[in-house]
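Record 1 of the preview.
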Amino acid sequence: MIGLIYFLVIIFANALGAISGMGGGVIIKPIFDFVGAHSVAAISFYSSVAVFTMAIVSTLRQLKSGLRMDWKALGWISFGAVAGGFLGNIALDYFLTIFNEKKVNLIQIILTVLTLLFAFFYTKYDWKNFRLINISWYVVSGLVLGFLASLLGIGGGAINVSLLMLMFSMPIKEATVYSIGTIFFSQLAKILTIAGTTGFSRFDLTMLYFVVPAAVLGGLLGTNLSIIFSPKRVTTVFQGIIFLVLLINVYNAWQLFY
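->
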Protein backbone atom coordinates (compact mmCIF):
# COMPACT_ATOMS: atom_id res chain seq x y z
CA MET A 1 0.00 0.00 0.00
CA ILE A 2 2.81 2.43 0.90
CA GLY A 3 4.54 1.60 -2.38
CA LEU A 4 1.41 2.48 -4.35
CA ILE A 5 1.03 5.77 -2.46
CA TYR A 6 4.67 6.63 -3.18
CA PHE A 7 4.19 5.69 -6.85
CA LEU A 8 1.21 8.03 -7.33
CA VAL A 9 2.79 10.88 -5.36
CA ILE A 10 6.02 10.72 -7.36
CA ILE A 11 4.25 10.76 -10.74
CA PHE A 12 2.27 13.83 -9.68
CA ALA A 13 5.25 15.57 -8.05
CA ASN A 14 7.77 14.88 -10.79
CA ALA A 15 5.38 16.00 -13.51
CA LEU A 16 4.91 19.35 -11.77
CA GLY A 17 8.60 19.44 -10.85
CA ALA A 18 9.69 19.01 -14.46
CA ILE A 19 7.36 21.80 -15.61
CA SER A 20 8.42 24.25 -12.92
CA GLY A 21 12.09 23.26 -12.62
CA MET A 22 11.66 22.49 -8.92
CA GLY A 23 12.47 18.83 -9.36
CA GLY A 24 9.54 17.25 -7.55
CA GLY A 25 11.31 16.69 -4.26
CA VAL A 26 9.79 19.84 -2.81
CA ILE A 27 6.43 18.03 -3.06
CA ILE A 28 7.61 14.45 -2.42
CA LYS A 29 9.46 15.19 0.82
CA PRO A 30 6.62 16.86 2.78
CA ILE A 31 4.00 14.36 1.55
CA PHE A 32 6.21 11.40 2.52
CA ASP A 33 6.76 13.11 5.89
CA PHE A 34 2.98 13.35 6.24
CA VAL A 35 2.55 9.64 5.42
CA GLY A 36 5.19 8.87 8.06
CA ALA A 37 6.03 5.36 6.86
CA HIS A 38 9.84 5.82 6.85
CA SER A 39 12.62 7.65 8.67
CA VAL A 40 13.90 11.12 7.74
CA ALA A 41 17.03 9.60 6.15
CA ALA A 42 15.01 7.05 4.13
CA ILE A 43 12.54 9.67 2.88
CA SER A 44 15.43 11.92 1.86
CA PHE A 45 17.00 9.00 -0.03
CA TYR A 46 13.80 8.01 -1.88
CA SER A 47 13.15 11.63 -2.78
CA SER A 48 16.70 12.02 -4.11
CA VAL A 49 16.43 8.88 -6.27
CA ALA A 50 13.08 10.03 -7.66
CA VAL A 51 14.35 13.50 -8.50
CA PHE A 52 17.65 12.21 -9.89
CA THR A 53 15.77 9.86 -12.23
CA MET A 54 13.42 12.64 -13.30
CA ALA A 55 16.38 14.94 -14.04
CA ILE A 56 17.90 12.36 -16.40
CA VAL A 57 14.60 11.83 -18.24
CA SER A 58 13.78 15.53 -18.43
CA THR A 59 17.22 16.62 -19.68
CA LEU A 60 17.34 13.93 -22.39
CA ARG A 61 13.82 14.86 -23.53
CA GLN A 62 14.67 18.57 -23.67
CA LEU A 63 17.80 17.91 -25.70
CA LYS A 64 15.87 15.65 -28.06
CA SER A 65 13.39 18.47 -28.63
CA GLY A 66 16.21 20.67 -29.95
CA LEU A 67 16.99 22.71 -26.85
CA ARG A 68 20.31 24.55 -26.90
CA MET A 69 22.14 25.07 -23.63
CA ASP A 70 25.18 27.04 -22.52
CA TRP A 71 27.19 23.99 -21.49
CA LYS A 72 29.95 26.10 -19.97
CA ALA A 73 27.51 27.82 -17.62
CA LEU A 74 25.77 24.55 -16.79
CA GLY A 75 29.15 22.90 -16.19
CA TRP A 76 30.26 25.47 -13.61
CA ILE A 77 26.86 25.55 -11.88
CA SER A 78 26.86 21.75 -11.77
CA PHE A 79 30.42 21.69 -10.43
CA GLY A 80 29.26 23.83 -7.53
CA ALA A 81 26.15 21.67 -7.15
CA VAL A 82 28.21 18.49 -6.81
CA ALA A 83 30.32 20.04 -4.04
CA GLY A 84 27.19 21.44 -2.42
CA GLY A 85 25.48 18.05 -2.66
CA PHE A 86 28.33 16.35 -0.80
CA LEU A 87 28.35 19.04 1.90
CA GLY A 88 24.57 19.00 2.24
CA ASN A 89 24.44 15.24 2.81
CA ILE A 90 27.28 15.46 5.36
CA ALA A 91 25.37 18.23 7.15
CA LEU A 92 22.19 16.12 7.18
CA ASP A 93 24.01 13.11 8.65
CA TYR A 94 25.63 15.38 11.24
CA PHE A 95 22.28 16.83 12.30
CA LEU A 96 20.88 13.30 12.61
CA THR A 97 23.69 12.43 15.05
CA ILE A 98 23.20 15.44 17.35
CA PHE A 99 19.41 15.90 17.12
CA ASN A 100 16.49 13.49 17.12
CA GLU A 101 14.55 12.98 13.88
CA LYS A 102 11.75 15.30 15.00
CA LYS A 103 14.15 18.25 15.37
CA VAL A 104 15.91 17.49 12.08
CA ASN A 105 12.56 17.34 10.32
CA LEU A 106 11.61 20.70 11.84
CA ILE A 107 14.89 22.25 10.65
CA GLN A 108 14.21 20.96 7.13
CA ILE A 109 10.67 22.34 7.19
CA ILE A 110 11.75 25.80 8.39
CA LEU A 111 14.48 26.12 5.74
CA THR A 112 12.13 24.81 3.04
CA VAL A 113 9.45 27.35 3.97
CA LEU A 114 11.98 30.21 3.87
CA THR A 115 13.15 29.22 0.37
CA LEU A 116 9.55 28.87 -0.79
CA LEU A 117 8.65 32.34 0.48
CA PHE A 118 11.68 33.84 -1.26
CA ALA A 119 10.75 32.16 -4.54
CA PHE A 120 7.09 33.17 -4.34
CA PHE A 121 7.75 36.85 -3.62
CA TYR A 122 10.51 36.99 -6.22
CA THR A 123 8.29 35.74 -9.05
CA LYS A 124 5.19 37.56 -7.77
CA TYR A 125 6.71 41.03 -7.51
CA ASP A 126 9.31 40.81 -10.27
CA TRP A 127 12.33 41.88 -8.24
CA LYS A 128 15.41 43.30 -9.92
CA ASN A 129 17.63 40.83 -11.80
CA PHE A 130 21.42 40.89 -12.03
CA ARG A 131 23.45 39.79 -15.03
CA LEU A 132 26.48 38.18 -13.40
CA ILE A 133 28.95 36.62 -15.81
CA ASN A 134 32.00 35.70 -13.72
CA ILE A 135 32.64 31.95 -13.44
CA SER A 136 32.87 32.18 -9.66
CA TRP A 137 29.22 33.27 -9.46
CA TYR A 138 28.13 30.17 -11.36
CA VAL A 139 30.07 28.01 -8.92
CA VAL A 140 28.68 29.85 -5.88
CA SER A 141 25.09 29.52 -7.13
CA GLY A 142 25.57 25.79 -7.76
CA LEU A 143 27.16 25.35 -4.32
CA VAL A 144 24.19 26.97 -2.56
CA LEU A 145 21.62 25.09 -4.63
CA GLY A 146 23.34 21.73 -4.24
CA PHE A 147 23.77 22.17 -0.50
CA LEU A 148 20.13 23.07 0.13
CA ALA A 149 18.83 20.37 -2.23
CA SER A 150 20.78 17.67 -0.43
CA LEU A 151 20.28 18.94 3.13
CA LEU A 152 16.55 19.43 2.74
CA GLY A 153 16.02 16.23 0.74
CA ILE A 154 13.89 18.10 -1.79
CA GLY A 155 16.02 17.63 -4.90
CA GLY A 156 16.03 21.24 -5.99
CA GLY A 157 13.16 23.22 -4.72
CA ALA A 158 11.75 26.59 -5.61
CA ILE A 159 14.95 28.47 -4.88
CA ASN A 160 16.75 26.93 -7.88
CA VAL A 161 14.71 28.71 -10.51
CA SER A 162 14.42 31.96 -8.58
CA LEU A 163 18.15 32.21 -7.80
CA LEU A 164 19.12 31.51 -11.42
CA MET A 165 16.69 34.19 -12.62
CA LEU A 166 17.95 36.64 -9.99
CA MET A 167 21.68 36.17 -10.55
CA PHE A 168 21.84 35.61 -14.31
CA SER A 169 18.67 37.27 -15.67
CA MET A 170 17.41 34.01 -17.14
CA PRO A 171 13.82 33.80 -18.44
CA ILE A 172 11.78 31.38 -16.33
CA LYS A 173 11.60 28.61 -18.95
CA GLU A 174 15.38 28.71 -19.46
CA ALA A 175 15.95 28.77 -15.70
CA THR A 176 13.80 25.65 -15.26
CA VAL A 177 16.03 23.72 -17.69
CA TYR A 178 19.26 24.76 -15.96
CA SER A 179 17.63 24.02 -12.61
CA ILE A 180 16.90 20.43 -13.69
CA GLY A 181 20.50 20.05 -14.88
CA THR A 182 21.77 21.30 -11.53
CA ILE A 183 19.43 18.92 -9.71
CA PHE A 184 20.91 15.98 -11.62
CA PHE A 185 24.43 16.68 -10.38
CA SER A 186 23.51 17.60 -6.81
CA GLN A 187 21.49 14.42 -6.36
CA LEU A 188 24.20 12.32 -8.02
CA ALA A 189 26.61 13.71 -5.43
CA LYS A 190 24.17 12.89 -2.64
CA ILE A 191 23.64 9.29 -3.80
CA LEU A 192 27.39 8.74 -4.23
CA THR A 193 28.01 10.18 -0.76
CA ILE A 194 25.53 7.73 0.76
CA ALA A 195 27.14 4.86 -1.18
CA GLY A 196 30.60 5.80 0.09
CA THR A 197 29.66 6.38 3.73
CA THR A 198 26.67 4.69 5.34
CA GLY A 199 25.71 2.59 2.33
CA PHE A 200 22.18 1.63 1.26
CA SER A 201 21.59 -1.32 3.58
CA ARG A 202 19.67 0.82 6.11
CA PHE A 203 16.99 1.56 3.49
CA ASP A 204 14.17 -0.64 2.23
CA LEU A 205 15.39 -0.90 -1.36
CA THR A 206 12.25 -2.72 -2.51
CA MET A 207 10.57 0.71 -2.48
CA LEU A 208 12.71 1.61 -5.49
CA TYR A 209 10.53 -0.69 -7.60
CA PHE A 210 7.83 1.95 -7.10
CA VAL A 211 10.04 5.04 -6.94
CA VAL A 212 12.04 4.69 -10.18
CA PRO A 213 9.24 3.84 -12.68
CA ALA A 214 7.07 6.58 -11.22
CA ALA A 215 9.95 9.05 -11.54
CA VAL A 216 10.39 8.18 -15.22
CA LEU A 217 6.68 8.54 -15.99
CA GLY A 218 6.38 11.81 -14.10
CA GLY A 219 9.50 13.22 -15.74
CA LEU A 220 8.28 12.41 -19.25
CA LEU A 221 4.82 13.84 -18.62
CA GLY A 222 6.12 17.04 -17.06
CA THR A 223 8.79 17.67 -19.70
CA ASN A 224 6.34 17.24 -22.57
CA LEU A 225 4.01 19.78 -20.93
CA SER A 226 6.91 22.15 -20.19
CA ILE A 227 7.87 22.25 -23.87
CA ILE A 228 4.40 23.40 -24.96
CA PHE A 229 3.56 25.68 -22.01
CA SER A 230 4.07 29.45 -22.30
CA PRO A 231 6.34 31.27 -19.81
CA LYS A 232 3.22 32.74 -18.19
CA ARG A 233 1.72 29.27 -17.70
CA VAL A 234 5.01 27.97 -16.27
CA THR A 235 5.05 30.88 -13.78
CA THR A 236 1.47 30.08 -12.78
CA VAL A 237 2.35 26.42 -12.17
CA PHE A 238 5.47 27.48 -10.27
CA GLN A 239 3.57 29.78 -7.91
CA GLY A 240 0.74 27.26 -7.46
CA ILE A 241 3.18 24.57 -6.37
CA ILE A 242 4.81 26.95 -3.90
CA PHE A 243 1.46 27.71 -2.30
CA LEU A 244 0.54 24.00 -2.10
CA VAL A 245 3.87 22.98 -0.59
CA LEU A 246 3.79 25.84 1.91
CA LEU A 247 0.47 24.53 3.23
CA ILE A 248 1.80 20.96 3.49
CA ASN A 249 4.96 22.06 5.31
CA VAL A 250 3.09 24.29 7.75
CA TYR A 251 0.74 21.40 8.55
CA ASN A 252 3.67 19.00 9.03
CA ALA A 253 5.39 21.48 11.35
CA TRP A 254 2.19 21.82 13.39
CA GLN A 255 1.91 18.03 13.62
CA LEU A 256 5.42 17.79 15.08
CA PHE A 257 4.22 19.56 18.22
CA TYR A 258 1.27 17.23 18.82
